[in-house]
Amino acid sequence: MFPTFTGNSRRARNVNLSGQRTTNPFTSTWAPATNVGASKTVAHAQAERQQRQHERDRLKAAQRIQKTWRGHRVRQGLKAARRQKLDQLYNTLDPELRIAQALPLLLAVYDAARPDDRPRLLWVAEDLLKSESDAASTPAQAQLLLDSLGAIMKIRPQAIEPVIGRYYRVLGRACHDIGPASQSPELVRGVVAPLLATQVPESFTKAAYHAFAHSFLTLHDLAFFESNVAAFATGVDQDRLYSSLLAAPPAEPKTYESQADFLWLLAHLIALQDAKKQEVSSPLYLKALYLLLSMSSTYIRTAFRMPDPKGSSEARDVEGGLQQTLPLYVSDKLPSLIGKDEISTLLEMFTMNHGAKSASEMRLYLADMSTQYGPLPALKFFWNATSRTSIFSTIASNGESTLDVLRQRPSGAGSSTAKEDSLWHREWRTILLFLELYVFILRLTDDDDFFSGLNPQSAVQGSPSRLRSSSLSMEELKRLTRFLKHLSFTLYYSATELLETAARTPLTLSSPVEFLASPSRRMDSADVDVASKTASFSITAGIEFEAFRTLVTAAMKMVYERDSRRPFLPKGHWLMTSNLDMGGFVEGVVNEDQRQREARESREEEDEDSDEDMDPNEPNYTFAGQTRNRHAQVEKWKAVRRKEARERMLASIGPRLEILRNMPFVVPFEVRVQIFRQFHNGNPFSQNMQSVNVLARHQAKITRGHIFTDALTKFWDLDDGLKEPIQIQFVDEFGMEEAGIDGGGVTKEFLTSVTKEAFTNDERLFVTNSQNSYYPNPCAIDQQAESLRAAQITENSETWNESMADLLRQYEFLGRIIGKCMYEGILIDIVFAGFFLLKWASARADNYRPSINDLHDLDEELYQGMLQLKNYPGDIKDLDLDFTINDQVSLPGAPVRTVTRNLVPNGDRIPVTNENRPLYISYVARHRLVVQSRAQTRAFLRGLGMIIDPTWLSMFNQSELQRLVGGDNSEIDVEDLRRHTVYGGVYVIGDDGEEHPTVKLFWDVLHSLDDAERRLVLKYVTSTPRAPLLGFSQLSPAFSIRDGGQEVDRLPSASTCMNLLKLPQYRTAESLREKLLYAVKSGAGFDLS
Q1: Strand pairing of 1040-1043 and 1060-1063?
Q2: Which single residue of 48, 498, 607, 903 has CA 20 to 30 Å from 58?
Q3: Does residue 1057 have an active-site annotation?
Q4: Cβ atoms 890, 897 nearer than 8 A
Q5: Where is the segment annotated Disordered (predicted)?
């Protein structure tokens, strides 16, 4: 469809506004431009529009300036009036009467930068202490202020209730300024005094704890508090503090500053709890902790995000800069929550206090749950609770109702909706808890355990393991997968509708104290733009939309991977064609891809301009963790948000592409193949390619017997230019050029010959498993190093490095060749190992996860050994294993030599035990499947990605990719082949429409052959025994038959480069069958004519 691989078919616009019609296109090309007639009118109108826009911009700017000035003038006037009132108090009232009015006024107007405010501060202090003070001494002023505040708390603590928040902010600044090494018991007493005040109303105590949490603990870098937290903790009632947070939680953080304040609150809360470890922890701590973690989960994930070593340099700069924005104190406290001691404490608190709470209040623990029917595995417990929810039942039974269900998200917290609101979030929490646990268990479960639940008769004797007892039945899996695919489809395909609904409907919760409900402040829809809808919208409180969607999709994909490897669900179970307009689906995908490309290109320049002013190397924090350049932090945070907003915008204009990228298996395989062909139409026999000038093709002379090495030399520098047409001239072993013109057939023979030589004749690059499937030789790097050492080449020398680089170049070039074959629709008779094809499908996100199940495709003996180890009933220590593995480094045919490598640091010192054997098995699988062949695989995929966009490869699973490379394994359809066969010579069908008698005999004989013999005939003619995916209409060039003369004693011959069978004019079916089978089974008769 497109002449270039990019898929961009737009042509440059050619607009003629002169009003003149040019009959000669060549004269118009060189005529000078004139500004007369319509052109002048258009230019004048454009100038007027620009002038009007300029005037509007000036008017808006003036309005903003006036608005800012009016606000500043009002604030200054209000402060001036309060200063005047404060001055009047000290001219009239008695000192004992004016102090209650003077202190709030002083706190409202005091500015350390104004010299005239210092005397006012001293007036208040002198009234309190009845003593003289040196106004010129700044430390003395600070001490005087602390003494003054302490005196107020002793005399009239209720006087500070109206300004309690400002009171704690002043003390917070003092904790920040005096530093961690200072000694100031007065400051400690000042902070805890309102919390310990007696003979005061309950409202004052609540206000004090609220201000302590929201105005003091949220401040940054409280160095004195952080170094003396134990002293402060003695005066804090933990239950009151947690109750205050739960009763009046802080607003959900929306800006960078508010998110940073939120993390400081969380860190200081953890520090206070740690200071009281010797006391019994309050259950309210668990609730408050869950509340704060739920509300800040997005920012915490972003701040702790690991940089992508394979990502772009821009992404690494942005993410690296964002990581630096997390202060040292906060980054030290947050990870303490996942320490062993802390987890044990939380578990103990949960066990003591969960009581008879509903399933929605259960935490995600892998343990037995007590029921009226006896202990039940946690997964089964959560599954029973999930399957009984109304949300699950509705979505699982009717996919078309999913969008309506999600639109019913509660929008208010009034008394009439409080019960419904609570039920909605409780049910979603139950579902999400089950999915979290199920994903965790699936990662630990091998196929043996997984399928035991589907076939209980195959289970091993004795008590089943926890994983096997947690397996779901077939009917349960069918119901679960229906729910997951219906929900995931709606979350991707209808995401724009959901976000628009969120922008119109604010979300509040009815019960923020409830354990598993996280509060969310009401948002004005006018403040929510398209770019930030996803960040503010959530299906249920406490988990953002993207995290929610990722969890649901992950669970669905993990079940689908099992089904794609060993099918157990009914055929067509995953399809959702009724929810898509399949008639225009392919065209819709092409249009969406075009719009995304245009949008991406239009925003690239804006992003480049905004990133030029950012210095990623500028440090954001000093050694003490204090802010150095807050503006730079904000800009880096905004850069990440812009990137996320851009991805959300692209997703909103491409719902079909979102489905193909995240759950392509809901679209029929044949439709996905059509889409793949739309974007990879490099067929050398197509009309577009035949119209390309032969002189414009990349030409090369290739010597027989050295095809791979010559191809690497001639075409390596092309990089992705290998997608373009090439022209091959073969040279025989005597240096003579072979006759013939490359009209596409020679190119096909060249590509198939390269793959045959590289894969089947050279065992250095690729090896086979027990099923004769190919994958990169995992020992290639070690064997190359061994050969270099044998040649006495110094390690890391120039020769050494060049030899290693050349080996990886060969892998990369093979990736390009495979991509070239796929790009041009040329099938090759190579079968790849399933785990290796999974890496193709995961190349876009580089998210291949090795598992013990994939070891089956790599090494059957190793796979069985790991299964025996997993199920070993005795003490693993008796086997004397450690976390090491032996890798072969010897060359093929040489005596076997191995080296021992650690699977983990100091692995030779870590014995394998019953407790850590799952970890050992996972490390063995990771080493064999990923680590050992990482360099080879990356090089191959890099080359493949130059020709085929990995985005389109991710549409297919491993078996589908094999069909895409090598064709369909289904039975050969003789009639389909007959309908799409081209005849030549005397076999051309005449005007009467009748086939030649010999041709009729050929089809009769082909019908009589079994499928294995038909495949031999097909391979004899086309070089591959499999039919094209979409039928023989897609075979390029078309299957052809021409006469091979009247000598009936001759064997049929073939030109595989042209898919041509040269068939002598046999007169009987017996003779044709005998000669044909002899030719295809003996391999004789191949030639190039």
Answers
A1: parallel
A2: 607
A3: yes
A4: yes
A5: 591-630
